[in-house]
Amino acid sequence: MQGSIEYEVAGGVLVDGDRMLLLRDSRTGEIRLPKGHLEQGESHEEAAIREVAEETGYRPVGEVTCLGRMLNEFASNGGHIRRWETYYLMQVDGASRLAPRATDRARFKALWLPVDEAAKSLTFESEREFARRALEGP
After folding, report:
1. Are 93 and 16 in contact (CB under 8 A)?
2. 44 vs 136, which has greater pLDDT?
3. Computed over its alpha carbons, how large is the radius of gyration of the chain?
4. Where does residue 1 rank: exposed (0-12), middle (13-18), buried (19+ CB within 10 A)?
5. Most distant pair of Cα atoms in the chain: their distance
6. 8 to 3, 85, 94: CA distances (angstroms)
7. Span 86-100, pLDDT tens digits
């Protein structure tokens, strides 16, 4: 890949009481927040809710609160990526648990961490920033 690519993703910071849900990617070992690409005609919030459900098996309960939007730039496969990331604070509980898709179950392992440890555990600074925003309150 060469050149520059720009795209949008949306995801969630999932909180259940004093715990935050992170994902360990079995392919890379990275600790991440759930997120993914927007589908055509989908709002950021709709994409975030869908991606969270697909990757974690949870649907938010109550209000979903936007934590903001941030541009993340990095090199990948010989090209330059400009990725706009929008995250939402989502409250979840055991009753909101769904069955994750089989492909996502194999790739991601859920990690429930105390909120004071979660932000520090994330691999990428942009995701650590959104986790901090969630803890500070939108």
Report:
1. yes
2. 44
3. 14
4. exposed
5. 45
6. 17, 6, 30
7. 999 999 866 556 554
Instruction: Name the 3-class secondary structure at 49.
Output: helix
The answer to whether the beta carbons of residues 12 and 48 sit under 8 Å apart is: yes
Residue 18 lies in domain: 4-136
For the chain, the domain total comes to 1
Tell if the pTM clears 0.90, that is, is over it: no
Per the document, the length of the chain is: 138
CATH number of the domain encompassing residue 16: 3.90.79.10
| The token pair that represents 102 in the structure block | 């089989």
Distance from C-alpha of 56 to C-alpha of 50, rounded to nearest angstrom: 10
